Amino acid sequence: MDVIKLNCFKTFQSLVSHSPPPMSAQRSPKFSMTSTLHSRSRRDKDSPSSPSQASVILARTMPPEKIEIFKSMEGWARNNIVTLLKPVNKSWQPQDFLPDPTSDGFFEQINELRKRTKDIPDEYLIVLAGDMITEEALPTYQAKINGTEIFHDVTGVDNTPWAIWARGWTAEENRHGDLLNKYLFLSGRVDMRQIEKTTQYLLGSGMDAGLGQNPYLFTIYTSFQERATFISHGNTARLAKRHGDPILAQICGTIASDEKRHEIAYTKIVEKLFELDPNETVVAFADMMRRKISMPACLMYDGEHNNLFSHFANVASRIGVYTARDYREILQHLVAKWNVEKLSGLSSEGREAQDFVCGLAQRMQRVEERVLALAEKASSIRFTWIAARQM
Ligand SMILES: [Fe+2]
Ligand SMILES: [Fe+2]
């Protein structure tokens, strides 16, 4: 198997899934940048391969009774979801971890930072730069949340718990890319211009995780993604400590704990949906997993390398920051958290979705070692982010 096709962990699932990946998953970053409209029409021609997929695709915008379900959750969301946002006056800010430009010791603090980061291995820097670029593409994610039928903030200052959460979540996330960006800049270990270029390309390319405007799909996707970022930032924290930079370890650990809170919020929303509308929710969960959870920065491109994300993901896997095992374990965690195996009273479509989701992790586990070995052996490019030093 061609290692290039390890893109976005989709090959991992393709090995165990019967449905073909969506067309959008097969395009190169370059292609996606030429025309979003074009790629949309390619997806439209991609006819569903099973009845259950067909019905969910049709449900990508929701019928009025589904909107009522979210309306009925508003009081609960105010008390259980909005409260998971941290008040600004109790929140950390990037400056808490950075040299203070107003202090006399500013240049000394920079020198200390540069000493701490001097011996950090290139592979780690590549992963941290990729994580930073992913965080810096926040405008895309805000557009996604605002594009859903429920989180949609019509006036820009809507008072629904969903809009309050969407704005607060964005405001919390905004600090992640900001802090990593400044830290990497001051370290002098990376080529900031190339990193900035990659971010600009990524924002221009956008993302298509197959969510449409559907908040069922959106909250299932974000439950998965927030947990994935919690795990990966947690691992970069652990490795930073090992590489002799306790401040960087603290930075990554602090970001990881934000991601954990976000994971709790989205997971709770889906938990509630399972309670109120188990059939639609399990069908949406299966639909999401059939499509494979594509990473938000999947369309990453630096102006030189197609499949840049695959190369980045291979490095992340090699140094143990985020691997195919993590992907499978997140799925298992969510299946257990949402008690999917115990759901009862489902329609035949719901039962089919339940069987698919509950058996998927086991099927993945059978090919996991093979996927990990592929990432291990994958040839690497010269990452422009580290000034073209050979890996
Ligand atoms: Fe983040
Ligand atoms: Fe997050």
Automatic annotation (TrEMBL):
Subcellular compartments: Plastid, Chloroplast
Keyword Glycoprotein: no
Claim: Phosphoprotein is one of the keywords in the record: no
Known cofactor(s): Fe(2+); Fe cation
GO CC annotations, alphabetized: chloroplast
Keywords linked to the UniProt accession: Chloroplast, Fatty acid biosynthesis, Fatty acid metabolism, Iron, Lipid biosynthesis, Lipid metabolism, Metal-binding, Oxidoreductase, Plastid, Transit peptide
Chain sites annotated for binding Fe cation 2: E173, E226, E259, H262
Stretch list, region Disordered: 17-58
Protein name: Acyl-[acyl-carrier-protein] desaturase
Organism name: Juglans regia
